[in-house]
From TrEMBL:
Protein name, as recorded: 1-deoxy-D-xylulose 5-phosphate reductoisomerase
GO MF term set: 1-deoxy-D-xylulose-5-phosphate reductoisomerase activity; isomerase activity; manganese ion binding; NADPH binding
Keyword Isomerase belongs to the record: yes
One Pfam family per UniProt: DXPR_C
Record domain DXP reductoisomerase C-terminal: where: 33-148
UniProt keyword list: Isomerase
Length: 153
């Protein structure tokens, strides 16, 4: 969106009803709400400005109840700090972070590694050389290398 990283923040919203918030210069905040189903925000990201029909059920605002938020404790969620680091680095760093995270989470879900091995895999992937203007082949190569790193834990 062309915003400096300092203008992008994240908070915890465990109900997963609000998928994004945008604060405007006048202080007004616009929220994108939906059922806790990532098909909707992912579909919108892929087809914007077009909106496709989605089979997910409609959001029932009356059933939502209160919407709660919390700050992210970076000591408890070290991958959040690593994601911010990848965003600051730019280039292929975000692809490396994402690939290592996906591969490490898959290994964790198969009981092959511990939960705290996930950030270790991401941190190692972020040590890979970074290309600032990568081609698709460069991105696919860094993705594969980051997955190899996570597989080797």
């Amino acid at each position: 969106y062309g915003l400096p990283l300092e203008q992008v923040t994240a908070i915890i919203h465990r109900q997963s009803v609000i998928h994004s918030l945008v604060e405007f210069v006048d202080g007004a905040v616009m929220a994108q709400l939906g059922v806790p189903d990532m098909r909707i925000p992912i579909g919108l990201a892929m087809t914007y400005p077009t909106r496709l029909h989605n089979p997910a059920p409609a959001l029932d605002l009356l059933a939502c109840g209160n919407l709660n938020f919390a700050e992210i404790d970076e000591a408890a969620f070290p991958c959040f700090a690593l994601a911010k680091q990848a965003a600051r680095i730019g280039g292929t760093a975000c692809a490396a972070m994402n690939a290592a995270n996906e591969a490490a989470v898959a290994r964790y879900l198969r009981d092959e590694i511990g939960f705290y091995d996930i950030p270790a895999a991401v941190e190692r992937a972020l040590a890979l050389p970074v290309m600032q203007n990568p081609t698709l082949d460069d991105i696919l190569a860094i993705d594969a290398e980051a997955r190899r790193i996570a597989a080797a834990l």
